[in-house]
TrEMBL record:
Aminoacyl-transfer RNA synthetases class-II family profile domain sequence ranges: 214-448
Gene3D superfamilies documented for this protein: Bira Bifunctional Protein, Domain 2 (3.30.930.10)
Keywords from the UniProt entry: Aminoacyl-tRNA synthetase, ATP-binding, Cytoplasm, Ligase, Magnesium, Metal-binding, Nucleotide-binding, Protein biosynthesis
Subcellular location: Cytoplasm
Identification of the protein by name: Phenylalanine--tRNA ligase alpha subunit
Comp. bias intervals (Low complexity): 52-72
Catalytic reactions on record: tRNA(Phe) + L-phenylalanine + ATP = L-phenylalanyl-tRNA(Phe) + AMP + diphosphate + H(+)
CDD domains found in the cross-reference section: PheRS_alpha_core
Species: Candidatus Protofrankia datiscae
Residue ranges, compositional bias (Basic and acidic residues): 28-44
Length: 453
C-alpha cells in the first residue's frame, strides 16, 4: 500500500457492514466501513468518543450477523417455501430397506401378482410398462427385495437370495412367454393388414397409337430418301411472296382471295397460313446450292368448310428436283416408284394433262384402282366409283418463271415437281370414307390400322 494511505485517522473505525452480513452470513466477507468525518456522524461532535462508538458498532454488527445466519438457516429448512429442503422421496432417494420383502410369502405374492399382470398385457407397449413396474424398475417389488438382502444377517442371505432369484426367474419367464405371444400376434396382424399379392399383374397404362397420317408420311419420306432426296421443312405462317408470287400466281389469281386463303393480322402484312408446301421448295432453291432433290412434308391450311372430303387443315407431301437435263421421263419414273410404294407393285399409272401456274407442262397422276383393277367383273367399286383409276396428285415440269424468281438459269437447269394430299392418299389406301375420322382424336381409329404399340 502506498505510504499516503497508511497515515492514522483519529476518526476511522472498522465497522462491519450489516447488509453484507445479512446477505452472505460470512464474517470474512465483512467490509470496512467508509470513512465519515462529517458533523452528521454519531459521536463525531464528542471528543474522545471514537473508541466507544467503534466498540458499540462492533457489537451491533455481530448481532446483525447472527440474525442473518439464523434467517438463512430458517429459509433453507422451512417447508413449503421455494428452495426449502425437500423430503428424501421427492429427491428420488431409494425407498427404505424392508427386510420383510424377502419373506417367502411376500415373494410368492409378488410373483403371482406380477405374473397375472403380465399375462393380461394387451400389446407390446403395455407389456413394456408392466416390465418396468414389476421387474426392472427402481420401485419394482423385486428390485426393492434385492436391496434388502444387505440388511439380513450373513446366515440368512443365501437362502433369501435363492428365494429371490427363483421368484425373479419365474416373473421373467412369464414376461418372455407373453412377449413371444404378443410378437407373434403383431407379426400375423401385419402380414394380413399389409399383405401384397405379388402374383397379380401390374397395372399397365395402355399405350397410344401413331396417327395413320404420320405413319403414311414417314413411309413416303423414307421412299424418297432411299432415292437420294433430302427432307426440307419451312414455316407454316408464310409470306405472300413465297406462297404465291414466286410460284407464278398473279395478283388476280382466285387462290389469293380470302375465300380460299387464311390471312394473318395485321392486314397488309402479307402474312398468311400457307396453302401448300410449295413455299418450302422456293426457300430451298434460294438457300441451297444446285442440284436440289428435296421432299417437303407438312401441314397446310385453306378456308374450306369441313365435310366428308374437305378440311381447313390437311397434310401435304411435295417433291422437287432441279438439275441439269431433267425431263418428263425422270418425272414419270419417280412417280412410278412412288405409286408402287403407296399402293403396291403391279399397278399401272398414267399422266393426264392438267394445269398448274408453277409447272409447264402440267399433269395429274392417276393410278389403276387397286380394288377392282378396272375389271368390270369386280365392279361396282367404292374405291374408284367404277372408273378404274384413282387420282393421286398433280405434277409437272417447273415453270421457267419460278426458276428465274429463285435466281436459277432456266437455260441451264430444269426440274420437275409433284404433290399430293396425305389425307386423300390415306383414304384411298385404307378405304376411309370420312376425312373427319383423321381429326376426331379417337385412338381406336389408329389402332384399327395396326399403328398402335
Amino acid at each position: 500500500m502506498p505510504p499516503s494511505t497508511q497515515s492514522a485517522d483519529p476518526h476511522r473505525s472498522d465497522v462491519p457492514d450489516p447488509s453484507a452480513a445479512s446477505a452472505g452470513g460470512d464474517s470474512n466477507s465483512r467490509r470496512t466501513a467508509p470513512e465519515h468525518t462529517g458533523p452528521d456522524r454519531p459521536g463525531a461532535d464528542r471528543p474522545g468518543s471514537t473508541r466507544a462508538a467503534s466498540s458499540g458498532a462492533a457489537s451491533d454488527g455481530a448481532a446483525l450477523e447472527g440474525a442473518a445466519l439464523e434467517g438463512a438457516a430458517s429459509k433453507r429448512t422451512e417447508p413449503g417455501r421455494p428452495g426449502s429442503q425437500r423430503p428424501s422421496s421427492q429427491r428420488g432417494d431409494p425407498a427404505p430397506v424392508d427386510p420383510g420383502a424377502l419373506d417367502p410369502d411376500r415373494l410368492e405374492e409378488v410373483r403371482v401378482q406380477a405374473s397375472a399382470a403380465i399375462a393380461t398385457a394387451g400389446d407390446l407397449d403395455e407389456l413394456a410398462a408392466l416390465r418396468t413396474l414389476h421387474l426392472d424398475g427402481r420401485g419394482a417389488p423385486l428390485a426393492l427385495a434385492r436391496r434388502a438382502l444387505g440388511a439380513l444377517p450373513q446366515s440368512e442371505r443365501v437362502e433369501a437370495g435363492r428365494r429371490h432369484n427363483t421368484a425373479t426367474a419365474a416373473v421373467r419367464a412369464a414376461y418372455e412367454a407373453r412377449l413371444a405371444e404378443l410378437t407373434a400376434e403383431r407379426d400375423a396382424r401385419v402380414l394380413v393388414e399389409e399383405r401384397v399379392d405379388v402374383t397379380l399383374p401390374g397395372t399397365r397404362r395402355p399405350r397410344g397409337a401413331r396417327h395413320p397420317l404420320s405413319t403414311l408420311s414417314d413411309h413416303l419420306v423414307d421412299v424418297f430418301v432411299a432415292m437420294g432426296y433430302e427432307v426440307a421443312e419451312g414455316p407454316e405462317v408464310e409470306h405472300d411472296w413465297f406462297n404465291f408470287e414466286a410460284l407464278n400466281l398473279g395478283p388476280d389469281h382466285p387462290a389469293r382471295s380470302s375465300h380460299d386463303t387464311l390471312y394473318v393480322d395485321p392486314v397488309g402484312s402479307g402474312l398468311l397460313l400457307r396453302t401448300h408446301t410449295s413455299p418450302v421448295q422456293i426457300r430451298t432453291l434460294l438457300s441451297r446450292p444446285l442440284p436440289v432433290y428435296v421432299v417437303c412434308p407438312g401441314r397446310t391450311y385453306r378456308n374450306d368448310a369441313i365435310d366428308a372430303t374437305h378440311s381447313p387443315v390437311f397434310g401435304q407431301l411435295e417433291g422437287l428436283a432441279v438439275d441439269e437435263g431433267i425431263t418428263m421421263a425422270d418425272l414419270r419414273g419417280t412417280l412410278e416408284a412412288f405409286a408402287q410404294a403407296l399402293f403396291g407393285s403391279g399397278l399401272a399409272t398414267r399422266l393426264r394433262p392438267s394445269y398448274f401456274p408453277f409447272t409447264e407442262p402440267s399433269a395429274e397422276l392417276d393410278v389403276a384402282c387397286f380394288a377392282c383393277r378396272g375389271e368390270p367383273a369386280r365392279q361396282p367399286c367404292r374405291v374408284c366409283s367404277d372408273e378404274g383409276w384413282i387420282e393421286v396428285g398433280g405434277c409437272g415440269m417447273v415453270d421457267s418463271n419460278v426458276l428465274v424468281a429463285c435466281g436459277v438459269d432456266p437455260a441451264r437447269y430444269s426440274g420437275f415437281a409433284f404433290g399430293m394430299g396425305l389425307e386423300r392418299a390415306a383414304m384411298i389406301r385404307h378405304d376411309v370414307h370420312e376425312i373427319r375420322d383423321f381429326v376426331d382424336g379417337d385412338v381406336r381409329f389408329g389402332l384399327s390400322f395396326g399403328t398402335g404399340n
